[in-house]
Amino acid sequence: MRLRFFTQFLFTALIGFHAGALAQPMDKTHPVFENGEAQVVPGFLDPEDWIRHDLWVETPFDTDGDQQPDRMHVSVTRPGQTETEGLKLPVIYISSPYFAGTAPFVDGLFWDVKHELGQPAPRERVHPAVTRKGKRPVISDSHIDTWVPRGYIVVHSSSPGTGLSQGAPTVGGDNESLAPKAVIDWLNGRAKGYTEPVGGEPVEAYWTTGKVGMTGTSYNGTIPLAAATTGVDGLEAIIPIAPNTSYYHYYRSNGLVRSPGGYLGEDIDVLYDFINSGDTARRPHNDQTVRDTEMQMGMDRITGDYNDFWAGRDYLNDMEPMKAALLMSHGFNDWNVMPEHSYRIYKAARAKGIPAQIFYHQKGHGGPPPLKMMNRWFTRYLHGVENGVENDPRAWIVREKMDSGQPTPYADYPNPEAAPVVLYPSPGAPGHGRLLASKADSGTRETLVDNFSFPGETLARAETSGHRLLYTTPVLAEDLHISGVPRVTIRLASSEEAANLSVWLVSLPWNTGQGTRITDNIITRGWADPQNYRSLTESEPLEPGRFYDVAFDLNPDDQVIPKGQQIGLMIFSTDRDFTLWPEPGTELTIDLEATHLELPVVGGAPAYRKAAGTGH
Question: When you count CB atoms within 10 A of the terminal residue's CB, does the N or C end of the chain come out lower?
Fold first, then answer.
């Protein structure tokens, strides 16, 4: 008898069961772990054996004005053994405003961007209605096939005011943090669930351990962060993928009104209309209180200044209670939700001592970490398996020619070996000036003329142009590794009281041939409003002809620029894919002596000098 017990004990230890698994009878189905990862278990694999049900979780708020606490629609998918064998499992939870459909892309949905800076748009937007799609009880099948067979329960919920969830969509308001908190509270027996949106029988989550992990992409990646900032007990780990961490950073840039890439003219009220799929009877109240009052009064498309409205939708301001382990994922070439969103939260989480890792790839919007990374993260923090994931390298970066499933580990991001190299522009307009490690001649100034008709790519490829200033390094004799956040300081004067300011960091010559990669041309970029040169919260009209110092970060990057290329600093005004379109003709004059780029180079100045093949 003792020998048989010892053999069983040794067997379970070898395949990596945690302490809780040892207590389970050997003839029952339970999670299996190998190499620190949850394995697909045959007993969890058949969808016919899964239990699916939906319910409504009561929240502590009423945002749709019906004088009743809003209830969130929740869908549960769990292995049958949670009923037949009394098995308790952790939860992977996904919440979204998109599950019930979105508004159509009709003419007039977006703001008209063709108007002068500091002036209102020439016409009001249209507000298309969302026709809710989907049937009960299933909200979404997202993630179910991946995680249920590996010993998890998968929970989905529609965010407030979308689908069958009650309340108002607020696009980053407090209810979008408190709603997932309520669901997690319900999973831990601290909130009430019901079989119906009104009345109904109580529903208890007796089938879970109460440990919850959240994930999702874009808006669905924002909600895990929103939930984590509440500090709710039970939320152990989150894996946000390309999350919007600040709606100001999404719709503004250093005081400038700026659209997310691919959605010219979008603003926060457009996104409200886009996701407004909730109860049609409550929509007039929600439109009036949220879109037509709070948003109209707070979003400020005239100045673009940071204010209390935007501060209340910036999750960096709410991180004090956060304790959930963070695995962040983003693409360096995501010009929709730009990579600054992930880095600012990762940096703050690291400063707080929260277990945190970051995964960056070289593609665009979306893109999760490899399944192995996600599996190890959830296995460690939801199942409690000591797989050492917290001791893994903090940064994982997919190199330029590698598959997303093969990231390279680094000690951290930015690369700890990176140091800023200061580069100065030397005159050359309307052609290419030089970008060197020494200042230009004293008093050198160059001028560009704004014209929205010319896309950034056209300006970068042009040998000469009066609509941009372009300064290039020597042709690189060796590869140059950039890692971190480039920063520009530009001394400029404008011929008008307001002007757009756009900066691209490019790799030249521009590649358009077969096999061109997303990393080949644009390294990174950024935008700013010169009227906010002194303060992000208070802009002031520019005095034509007066020079101002404008300093701001470009988006973070980690990229190896190959030998044979030149790095170009391009300064221009209107970026037609992102900014408003004032009438052409505004002149920006740049004082080159007081303008410079801080480029984060792995190996610092010695590495740059070696790659540039010059001591200058």
Answer: N
